[in-house]
Amino acid sequence: MVCSSNQNRSMEAHSLLKKQGFDVSSYGTGAHVKLPGPSLREPNVYDFGTPYKQMFDDLRRKDPELYKRNGILPMLKRNSSVKLAPQRWQDNAADGSFDIVLTFEEKVFDMVVEDLHSRDQVLMKTVLIINLEVKDNHEEAAIGARLALDLCQAIEDAESWEESIDDIIVAFENKHRRKLLYSISFY
């Protein structure tokens, strides 16, 4: 599961899929982790690897009412129950191989595809990269997580996703009225 900051969309999906028994990881592709601040011009910026609990404590000290009201504190609390800290996609090579990478924004999809193409193709393993466009807000992230679960279950149920991916994508798009981008890559 990959979004920009490994905070909202990827973590909502990570949490749900983990609860459903999937072996799942999540990442962000940005240069830094950005969370809303008191204004658009004043985001809270953290390095990848900064523990969610540390971000939670920092924002709770700054303005507990604001960050509770806008959903950031509950989101960080959820995130810290799933894993220690946000991870950056471009730094994940040591994490092992992936069968499927699901992104939640087209520019993130492009970055993941480009990154996989630039890696040494040592494993020559097939990976399916799918983009499910999801707006970066709490309500849409929850919907996106359920859609991601539905899509992952459909792929898991297939005898061979490589042979049936076109049918899986068309069925998903028809059922949910959402367009998907996908690419098959090797790494």
UniProtKB/TrEMBL annotation:
GO terms for cellular component: nucleus. One of its GO terms (molecular function) is RNA polymerase II CTD heptapeptide repeat phosphatase activity. It comes from the Eukaryota. It is found in: Nucleus. InterPro entries: RNA_pol_II_suA (IPR006811). Transmembrane segments: none annotated. Keywords: Hydrolase, mRNA processing, Nucleus, Protein phosphatase. Its main location: nucleus. The keyword Hydrolase applies. GO terms for biological process: mRNA 3'-end processing. It holds the Pfam family Ssu72. Belongs to the SSU72 phosphatase family. PANTHER family: RNA POLYMERASE II SUBUNIT A C-TERMINAL DOMAIN PHOSPHATASE (PTHR20383). Protein phosphatase that catalyzes the dephosphorylation of the C-terminal domain of RNA polymerase II. Plays a role in RNA processing and termination. This is RNA polymerase II subunit A C-terminal domain phosphatase SSU72.
